[in-house]
Write the structure tokens for this entry.
Amino acid sequence: MALFAVASLTPLPLLVAGVLWGGPWVLGGLVYVGLFALLMDQAIPHVAPDAPEGAEFPVADALLVLLGLAHLAAFPLAVWGIAGDSGLTGGERVALFFGWGMFFGQISNPMAHELIHRGDRWLFRLGMAVYTSMLFGHHTSAHRHVHHRHAATDADPNSARRGESFWRFLPRAWIGSFRAGLGAENALRAKGARGLHPYAIYIGGGLAALALGAVLAGGAGVLAWAGLALYASSQLMLSDYVQHYGLRRAMLPNGKPEPVDDRHSWNAPHWFTSGMMLNAPRHSDHHAHPARPYPALRLPPPDRAPWLPYPLPFCAGVALIPPLWRRMMHPRLKRWETKA
């Protein structure tokens, strides 16, 4: 737990200091998330061991709550620093945008992802609030009701197809997951589910967030909020793109896909970025055990599940350049296609 806490919380005071004091502080969080974490993976080539089966982590949820509440306070602070009367220079505001955007994209996203898989309704609602603040509330429904059911099939909008570039995947997955999540929630209501429709919360909450941006910094605040939200949610989609790229479940004679297996997700063994991202790169085990808390996620051996050649954030950067991405991934993908 010490690694998860230190790796995920350290950027926060650096980024807050950047808002308050500017100067070299504005680069602190950006350098930490964008460079330092990757360098730690390379400087200390270590694979964190699996937790013992059945191990419990009583403070794991406390860290999620701390990060969730910090996110809800930090997002408007970031918007004010970037677009409001913060006294920062244009260059400092740009650096803050990318620093906060990377924090929300690479730490807030996996934190909210963990929360929406919790059985406790208050933890679940905190995760929903985090996604809604990033104008991405529908992911709360689409991820649980669509992605986990249809991962590695064409029925899942968030499973990238072989040869599909990220730039084609992004609009298809965003729109497709919005629609698929809405369809899943409507189906639940047709079966008797009660209460306020989640999409009313997602859309209403998103509009309220943009209104807060306007209060903080007028039209510029609305643009800054929307820009940060788009940047952060795009990083989540980029993670989905990388972690399921090209992998497909075989269809059984009954017309249904085979059960999800370890070989249907790309994993990353790199210790520091895994700590910073709350073990999100241990993706196969998450699909096998969605309710398993992040410190207990296990890393399948490379002969049983595909491993990415570099840390997940670095591979995500490569995925932005489609020819380079295909050159790196297709030989590795071919080996797993022959094992299917």
